[in-house]
Design brief:
A hairpin with a 5-residue loop joins β15 and β16. Helices cover 32% and strands 27% of the residues. The longest helix is centred in the C-terminal third of the chain and has 22 residues. The chain is an alpha+beta fold.
């Protein structure tokens, strides 16, 4: 019998297992994941940006854990020999009506503990990004890039316990003073479980008998890469001022840790919870989303935005125009298809996108129901917070 069973070997699940090791020395821990490698989904299908805590409502879990997690991640990366580049970021207001929102980001970032934020006027933008343009910008020196797949691999090496890959959870049953987790190959009995199943977190919670207050709606983010001819147009990270109605950050530029430049992502409804480029649609997932009242209410509220995102997904020229708002010299021929990620976005029954991390507790279980970006940056802090919750419940 195990003391703890963590479901999900993404970066949050592995960080949680590591934190449980530290909080409960000598405890027996199992980690389960249905894939043959750890970190196969959101961990390895993102832009690799190390976020600073700029965007998030002060006092929220996202704000606190992102700021704490970034600091912990920098130390972890240094100890593990993983390159982390503090390249800095510009958040650019391309229109006058975005300037107020940009200053709100400055306020949030400052309240969240960022001390080196700087507001730039139009002429100062070129000091950081010579080919970018806008009416004003916010410089965020704390932002950077890392390969989160390498972080997950290092975390896996540090977990003291059994990591069972290729072990899809098929059922969860209460036992006497324990929980039985069934997979297609074994039964794992543990005193407590922690659900870090990401794209399938709501389904795992329901298996455990939890009353789930949200549903995961998968949104696909599609990326392009800049060709060599356009590589010189971007130095580091260039972002637009995000639409405050949504937890997405808009099409932006990222010079990744391998020095390539990624453009994107957009945000379109995914035809499956694991619908990456080249994947086949999962029509069961699609039917489940369409049947959810919360999704239908979301569509009624934001159908115009959704239609615009879908149109941009289908036309490279439209995608290029979004990029040109930040870097005017970009052309459609500079964009070549890149990767794609699927964001596990929790949606409430009344059709609202959950903006904060969402973690609930039930008898002998903790369920991480909403942990999209900046969860990778915050992963070490999220894991420690979960370990503290587990300790408080014992």
């Amino acid at each position: 019998m195990y003391d703890f069973c963590v479901i999900g070997a993404g970066i949050v699940g592995l960080a949680t297992a590591r934190a449980l090791n530290a909080r409960f020395p000598g405890a027996a821990i199992a980690v389960l994941d249905k894939e043959s490698t750890a970190g196969a989904h959101q961990t390895s299908h993102n832009s690799g940006v190390v976020h600073s805590g700029l965007y998030y409502k002060p006092g929220s879990l996202k704000a606190r854990l992102c700021v704490e997690g970034q600091r912990e991640l920098e130390g972890f990366a240094a100890d593990a020999g993983i390159p982390l580049t503090r390249s800095g970021k510009l958040v650019i207001a391309t229109r006058e009506d975005e300037v107020a929102a940009m200053h709100e980001l400055f306020r949030r970032g400052t309240e969240n503990g960022l001390r080196d934020l700087r507001v730039l006027d139009r002429s100062e933008i070129a000091d950081f990004e010579p080919h970018a343009t806008g009416v004003a910008a916010l410089h965020v020196p704390e932002a950077g890039v890392i390969d989160f797949s390498l972080v997950a691999a290092a975390l896996q090496q540090q977990v003291t316990g059994d990591v069972f890959l290729g072990s899809a959870v098929t059922g969860i049953e209460a036992a006497v003073d324990a929980v039985d987790v069934m997979t297609d190959g074994r039964r794992v009995r543990a005193g407590r479980i922690v659900n870090c199943a990401g794209l399938h977190a709501d389904r795992v919670a329901e298996m455990a008998g939890a009353k789930v207050p949200v549903r995961i709606v998968p949104f696909r983010g599609e990326y392009y890469r800049l060709t060599a001819a356009a590589d010189h147009l971007v130095r580091a990270l260039i972002y637009p001022v995000p639409d405050p109605r949504f937890p997405f950050l808009g099409v932006h530029f990222t010079r990744r840790s391998d020095r390539s430049i990624e453009v994107g992502p957009n945000a379109v409804l995914a035809l499956g919870r694991e619908y990456y480029r080249g994947a086949k649609p999962n029509w069961g997932d699609v039917r489940s989303v369409l049947a959810y009242p919360g999704f239908r209410r979301l569509v009624r509220r934001y159908w115009r935005t959704g239609a615009a995102e879908a149109w941009r997904s289908m036309r490279r020229s439209t995608y290029a125009r979004s990029a040109q708002a930040l870097v005017p010299d970009i052309r459609a021929e500079h964009l070549e298809p890149g990767g794609a990620g699927v964001r596990a976005q929790a949606v409430t029954p009344d059709g609202k996108l959950v903006d904060d991390f969402s973690i609930i507790e039930t008898d002998r279980a903790v369920h991480v129901l909403n942990a999209p970006s900046p969860a990778a940056t915050a992963s070490l802090a999220i894991g420690r917070s979960i370990a503290e919750r587990v300790a408080a419940s014992m």
